[in-house]
What we know:
The structure is a homotetramer.
Chain A: E1 6-11, H1 16-25, E2 31-38, E3 43-44, H2 45-48, E4 59-62, H3 65-71, E5 74-77, H4 83-93, E6 97-100, H5 109-115, H6 122-127, E7 129-130, H7 133-142, E8 145-147, H8 151-160, E9 173-179, H9 194-197, E10 202-203, H10 211-219, E11 226-232, E12 239-246, H11 253-260, E13 267-269, E14 285-292, E15 295-302, H12 310-320
Parallel strand pairs in A: 1-2, 1-5, 2-4, 5-6, 6-8, 7-8, 9-11, 13-14
Antiparallel strand pairs in A: 3-4, 9-12, 10-11, 12-15, 14-15
Amino acid sequence: MRPTKIPVAVIGASGYTGLELIKMLVQHPIFEIRYVGTSEGGVSLSELHPSLSSVSECAIEKADANAVAESCELAFLALPHKTAMGFVKALIALDVKVVDLSADYRLERDTYEAHYVPHIDPENLAHAVYGLPELNRTKIKEATLVANPGCYPTASILAALPFMPFRQSGTPIMIDAKSGVSGAGKKCSHNTHYVTINENAFAYAPLDHRHGPEIAEKLAVDESTVHFVPHLLPITRGMLSSVYMQVEGDFDPLELLEKVYRDEPFVRIRKTPVDMKSVSGTNFCDIYAKRSGDVLFITSAIDNLLRGASSQAVANANLMSGLEESTGLPIIAYVP
Amino acid sequence: MRPTKIPVAVIGASGYTGLELIKMLVQHPIFEIRYVGTSEGGVSLSELHPSLSSVSECAIEKADANAVAESCELAFLALPHKTAMGFVKALIALDVKVVDLSADYRLERDTYEAHYVPHIDPENLAHAVYGLPELNRTKIKEATLVANPGCYPTASILAALPFMPFRQSGTPIMIDAKSGVSGAGKKCSHNTHYVTINENAFAYAPLDHRHGPEIAEKLAVDESTVHFVPHLLPITRGMLSSVYMQVEGDFDPLELLEKVYRDEPFVRIRKTPVDMKSVSGTNFCDIYAKRSGDVLFITSAIDNLLRGASSQAVANANLMSGLEESTGLPIIAYVP
Amino acid sequence: MRPTKIPVAVIGASGYTGLELIKMLVQHPIFEIRYVGTSEGGVSLSELHPSLSSVSECAIEKADANAVAESCELAFLALPHKTAMGFVKALIALDVKVVDLSADYRLERDTYEAHYVPHIDPENLAHAVYGLPELNRTKIKEATLVANPGCYPTASILAALPFMPFRQSGTPIMIDAKSGVSGAGKKCSHNTHYVTINENAFAYAPLDHRHGPEIAEKLAVDESTVHFVPHLLPITRGMLSSVYMQVEGDFDPLELLEKVYRDEPFVRIRKTPVDMKSVSGTNFCDIYAKRSGDVLFITSAIDNLLRGASSQAVANANLMSGLEESTGLPIIAYVP
Amino acid sequence: MRPTKIPVAVIGASGYTGLELIKMLVQHPIFEIRYVGTSEGGVSLSELHPSLSSVSECAIEKADANAVAESCELAFLALPHKTAMGFVKALIALDVKVVDLSADYRLERDTYEAHYVPHIDPENLAHAVYGLPELNRTKIKEATLVANPGCYPTASILAALPFMPFRQSGTPIMIDAKSGVSGAGKKCSHNTHYVTINENAFAYAPLDHRHGPEIAEKLAVDESTVHFVPHLLPITRGMLSSVYMQVEGDFDPLELLEKVYRDEPFVRIRKTPVDMKSVSGTNFCDIYAKRSGDVLFITSAIDNLLRGASSQAVANANLMSGLEESTGLPIIAYVP
Lengths: 336, 336, 336, 336
């Protein structure tokens, strides 16, 4: 028997991750969008995202937690951090399950408050589950609130985690990451201007980006161990994370990766260095590693808007709803 | 009194570095191109490089050392490694000064032969000078043969060198470098196809690129200390080198850079992370550094075809000819 | 009752249109790939297209018509013109339906031979149907051989056709078209080199491209009426066709388009000029038009590899197989 | 004897055309920048344009006509239309020669006011010279006020003008133009956002762009004759203009172009279709033309910021100052 549809909401539909959520949900076999909200409301879906004309149409509401709770079992929140907390608190109180794509429930309270703002919802923070399925699949299945990981942490943790047992104690982990511009959001600014980005590349917030502490926390090392430097590239979507670690012990990095991720449907171990485009448009994380003496180089690739945000959110919602993790997830890359 | 012109040759005019040499030499106040050669010959300059129509015109010869020696005091060689050696040997024997843009005279013989091919000209290799002016300016002035550095080594050495005294002994140096596609040359291949490169990025030859040993040798450390990973970006020209070192001692990285490069006309210390485009079209190397605990991050930017090849070659030729290093060098970036 | 699967073949799997076919067919609810062939064979699907790892796997055969006929009801041919004819002839003789993506069956024999090569299969050419559903839907449903239209003709004909009744007799039709580089194919050449294309744009084969006569024939005007100039843009996929016509009579161009295409699921009339990206990844053709006095400007956008090739081929195969035209066709754009 | 320096001002230094002016003027052998102004003032040149660090430094003033007049003989105005008029009026009254890069003095008063705003300086408008040297060289030499042409008009007029005598009377001229994004200016907006532009292309303001009337006026035809459609491409700098005309009479288009432009130093007639990149970074306009029956296709390429703005402004200033037109103009393209 075909399972009943599950009604869901998307709150924060105007940005890129909101659009990606909608693109997947309109084709999802079980989830059905019943509510779409933005901070403003008052437009139609195809006015907000003209590429969806003739594909999907619905009214977009000024986001309201009670209205969501009336019709939906689960809500995806694609809102800025701080704004997200308010909605999460209200939705959880109304018994709506939440996948929150903001940073608000990703970190321990102390770490969060040191890098963001004071937290207004410590009760829910205490039981929120970090939504990296490879790390927390069992907990996610039971969760009512999942904090969807950041894009850089997703790529970096999946790359580094299998090798942590071999890391030389006391040595730093260097992460040189590269992101497409969509990660900077839809807002126009000097750093999203075509002329600034085209034929250019540069580091930003080196050793000082908020995703550094998130990576450290999930790898279970001190913040001071992870040295994280993101770069912006002239690419719309895609992310590459290059991790450098000092290791000891006898292991073949590709064999180890194959073994650790053998049963993972959305991690692919590559025999040659990964590239951004082969994962673009998909939920895959591709990983390659090579060792030279004591130094290990690991390079992973994800689509920053999908595995780094929206498709991982759908994977989490699938698990929270008792569905197969892979239900409705994109696996075919934007190649060529 | 205006100095007399100095006649020079460009051998290997068909590639990108050959074109860049010609672009600078046709506007150089002292050097005058008297001979342009390729492996084939038999075309005109504007047939080979249509953008030079109405700008400069000359016949292109099938490269011949004797013909060069008849008319020129100095030759720029933009040939593949191995081919270069043969010409250098002949030209030096004929008393022509040479700036060689290939790898053939950059390394100690053992290192060269381990990573390239057997060397056929050890006599000249013994006295060739590595043409990084900031490192070897005095020797370059006296040299008859200058080995022009590789693009990755230029960016990486200028970034790392000032900090080598503070490096923690025994720790690795990680270099995560990013290059535009022009570095892969004019030859058509899968990795230079537009569809492969556009909206993509990937590492290649990780921990195994021949520029790793070149960097190590010039930083005076073991090959096994330098862990070098180059990446290809969807950009025509430009290069970024991100260097990660473990350091000790008390120093402010920007102050140190300012002090070391105070009198260098072609190194600019930046207060914020460097970007590729601000040096594109110029001989500048821009550098920024930041420290977090024991870890130092240094990011440098050059134009891979100019500071990483042709304009550095002209700088070397200037020095070898008793001219100001800056004569005829481009300083105004391709911005916007 | 769920319909039985229909076994199909893809011959010519190594290029971009072959890959696009496979991407759609692996997710198609009715068609099932039973045979994949290339001129060489002997590799696996994921070796040929690494982005398909973990998605789909099968052996790739050296293409053979008899082997196709043993297992498949319908074959997609993504082969170069001239090569295609040989296979079509054999497959039709073996009772396999064919959607041919080459130029071999698109034109009247005289026109074909004037612009391509002598035709070796005039028998099948005589009954082949030109596979533009908006033009020939009824005939396609009955066809055994469908000639899939060229990319430029698809975009240009859909733009111009509704206005042909209003065209001033004797006036020329100018078509200024713009294509992404994937249209030039996977082969490496000067015109597909990243450095040639990036930050560049140019016309090629102006007034002399083979798609000009194809457009004229389907618009039912003389070849000398259509003046077609294609341009290459620094974009991987996408196509824009700008059509200029001299018209008479009283009509509102947008209203006319709305009326003509009211029931067409894959034509979207836009209120503002169309853009490439909103159709990228889909089977849509977006059209906008504006009139100024006697001159009409129409601008249409398609994905050159999908509506201009592979998704249109699947639409044709759907119709030939008694399925809904839209079965398994992509409608969600690669935006952002 | 080396000529004395001529002191000049740049007003409107913050945008792209202002930067391009400064890049040329700091290397110009005769002009010397004595005054740089913006609407705000209060920064240094390298703060405004970081790529100029170590290249040129000066204070930037809040623009003031009297201060300009105290030190400068000629001023370049790179201001928005309407703002420009105010300054021009004041500067001319103070006997400062002006090259105005805005639209304010390009058109007959009626045409200007129909497409822009009421004109506040009709006195100077009456004697302003349209600064296209190929059209008005003699007048420019005598002018005190030159209206620098728009980018689209420069490319389109140079393409169309030689063929106007052969145009079939009463037929329309269609111009399909393509521009890089720098033409849209430095301001951040949806249409300059990297994600909007990258992998995209679209027409804007079709048949309704203000450069249409400018082209018509200078070609001496009715506004209703010129049908102008500009497109935005994913390119930083460069412009292509494709002109379609109906012609009569017997002529070879390339021979005609060669003849008309024989003595023009900054027009190059090409034997194959022009490309954007071969003129990028230069003052050249490249032109190619092909005829098919009664229809003529002409394609021209310029750098929109240079020949389409700033280098043409310097050419005009050279002529107004009694210098060779080519003094200090860039001729070497940003290739590769």
